[in-house]
Amino acid sequence: MGWGAPPARCSFSRMFPGFGTPFAELSGIGTAHFDTDAGKVSRMAIETFYDVMRRQGITRRSFNKFCSLTAAALGLSPAHAQDIRNAMETKPRIPVLWLHGLECTCCSESFIRSAHPLAKDVILSMISLDYDDTIMAAAGEQAEAIIAETIEKYDGNFILAVEGNPPLNQEGMSCIIGGRPFLEQLKHAADHCKAIISWGSCASWGCVQAARPNPTQATPVHKVPGLADKPIIKVPGCPPIAEVMTGVISYILTFERFPELDNQGRPKMFYSQRIHDKCYRRPHFDAGQFVEEFDDEGARKGYCLYKVGCKGPTTYNACSTVRWNGGLSFPIQAGHGCIGCSEDGFWDKGSFYERLSDIQGFGIEADADQIGGTAAAAVGAGVIAHAAASAVKRARSGSSSASADTTTTHEDA
Amino acid sequence: MASTTSKPHTEETVYVYEAPVRLWHWINALAILVLCLSGYLIGKPLPAIGGEAYDHFMFGKIRFAHFVAGQILVVGFVFRFYWAFVGNAHAREIFHVPLTRPSYWKEIWHEIKWYAMMEKSPKKYTGHNPLARISMHILFVWGIVFMILTGFALYGEGEGPGVIHTLFTSWVIPLFGQSQDVHTWHHMGMWVIVIFVIVHIYAAVREDIMSRQSIISSMFSGWRTFKDDGSSD
C-alpha cells in the first residue's frame, strides 16, 4: 500500500508521491484509544475527525467555522475550506507517536493552548495521538507498550512527532526513557515511521541543551547519526506558536503531504518572513525611533526595540502575525525584544539585549565592532609607526646623501 | 643602478590606468565610504529621534543610502571584472595573481623587505607591485565578493521571495547557520574593507613619496611616470 511502501529516501519532493494514497488505506484498521480512567487501551473502529468532533459535542456549524478558519490560517483560498471539510469528514485520523527527549515540555504546553481556529479538544481529535507521555493517562509499562503496539500496527504509516532531542555522549545516558536511552527509542521509532515532525527548537536546532559547550552533546533530530532516512519537517520555536503547530498538522492531514518547506526544512507558510517584516513597531524602526533603555520615554511610547537587542530582523517566525495566546500579544507587543528563539543556536549569540552578536572563537566574547575596531586600530597604529620609521629612514638617507654630496639615491628623486 | 639620478633624466611615462578603470576606482571609493558609514550606523544606530513615526524616515534614509551605494558598487564591480577581459594587461592584475610562479613569490619577498626597510631600493613596476597585487586580490577582490554575496543575502531577506532571495538569501543564510550570523560576518567584512582602505591609502602615499614611480597622480591621469631611468631592478 502506498502509505506502507518504503518512504522516499530523504528527499522532500519525492516524499509527496509516497503520501499519495495514504490515509484511506488505514480505514478499517482499528486504532487505539485511551480510556479516560485507567489508561487501558480499547479498540474501536477507526473514526474520522468529524465523527470524533461530533461525538465530543461540537456542532456542524462550529465544525464548518473551524474548517474555514483553518483554511484562512494556512493561507489558503476560501475554496480550500471545502477540502479541509472533506478531509475531516472522510479521512481516518493520523496515528501519531509523540516522543519526548531532552526538553522542557513547552512545545506540549503551547500545543494544548491552541485557541483558534482550533480548540484543544478539536485538535487532539484530529490526530490519533497514540502516545504522548506528558498528557496521556497511561503510565509505566502500559504506556511503553503503546509505543511497541503502534509501531507494530502502523509500521511505516505513523507520524513520529519529536519534542526535544537526544544527547549522544555517554551512549545517550543523559536522557533515559523507560530504562533505555531516548536515543534508542528515537532511532527505533524513526525506523518504522512515515515521516518525522521536529517540534520546537530542541528537535529542530538543539536549543538550550545544545548551547555551548553542550556537555551531553544534545543533537537535533536531523543530525542524529544512524537515524533512518525519513522526511523531516522542522517547526522551530521555543516553543512554537500553538496555531503554527496545529496548522502544520491540519495541513498534513488535509493534503496528505507536508506543506511546502524552505531549504532548511521549515514550512514556508509560517517561516518565510521575519518577525521584523510584519512587526507593528516597524514604522518606528524606519523613522529611527528606538528604545534606548527599557524605562525611557521611547519604551513608554512603544518605539522600536532594535537597539535593546530585538532579534526580530533576523528571526523567521510568525509571531508578529499569528501572535500568541489566541492572538492576544507577542513579546514585542509586551515591550520586550524578540530573542530569536526559533533560530539556530540562538543561545550562543551573546546577550539578548545587545544588537551585535558575540563572535565565538576568539577566546573572549566580543562583537564584530570590538574585534574589527581593535584590528583596524592596530593596523592604524602600525601604519603610523611605519610612516614614522619611513620618515626617519628617508631623513637619514637624505642627510647621508647630502654629506656624501656626490650622489643621491633614487629614493630622494 | 640609480646612482646618478640627480642628473637630468628622461621621464619615462606609461599609460597604465585606462579611463574606465580610473572612473571605477573613484566611484567605488565613494561607494565604499558611503557603505561603511551607513553600514556602521545600521549596526549601531544614532540616538533615537523623538516624536511621531510619520514625521521621520531617518533610519529608512540611512538604509536607502546603504542599498543605493551597494547597488552602485555591485554594478561597478561587475563592470570592473568585465574590464579585466577587454582592458589592458594591467586591468587584470588584481583579479589574477600568478601564485604558481616562483619568481612572483621572490618579488613579493623583495617587496616585503622593502616595506620592512631591509631593502635599500624598491623595484620599478609599471602596474601594481607584487605585494600590492596580492593584497588587493585577497583583501579587496575577495573581500568585496564576500560583502556582495552577504549583502545581497541580507537585502533579499527584506525583499522576501524573489530573484535576489533565490540567488543569494536562500543558500547564504543556511551556509552561515542563521540570519544573525550573516549580519555579524557582513559587519566583520566591513572592518576588513576598512583595514584594506587604511593600508591602501597609506601605501599609496608612501609609495608616491618613496618609490621610483608615481602612484596617486596615476589614478587621476592614468599615466605612470618613473622618477629615474635606472633599470627596473
Determine the CATH superfamily of the largest domain in chain A: NADH:ubiquinone oxidoreductase-like, 20kDa subunit
> How many domain units of chain B?
1
Broad structural category of chain B: mainly alpha
Helix content of chain B: 55-70%
Main interface pair?
A-B, 61 and 60 residues
The CATH topology of the largest domain in chain A comes to: Rossmann fold
In this structure, how is the largest beta sheet of chain A organized?
5 strands, parallel
Instruction: Give the strand content of chain B.
Output: under 5%
The CATH architecture designation of chain B is: Up-down Bundle
* Major sheet of chain B: 2 strands, antiparallel
Strand content of chain A: 5-15%
Uncertain parts of chain B: 1-5
Question: Rough shape of chain B?
Answer: elongated
Radius of gyration of chain B: 21 Å
What are the salient characteristics of this protein?
heterodimer; A: 413 residues; alpha/beta; Rossmann fold; 2 domains; two-stranded antiparallel sheet; 15 helices; 37% helix; 10% strand; disordered N terminus; disordered C terminus; B: 233 residues; mainly alpha; Fumarate Reductase Cytochrome B subunit; 7 helices; 2 strands
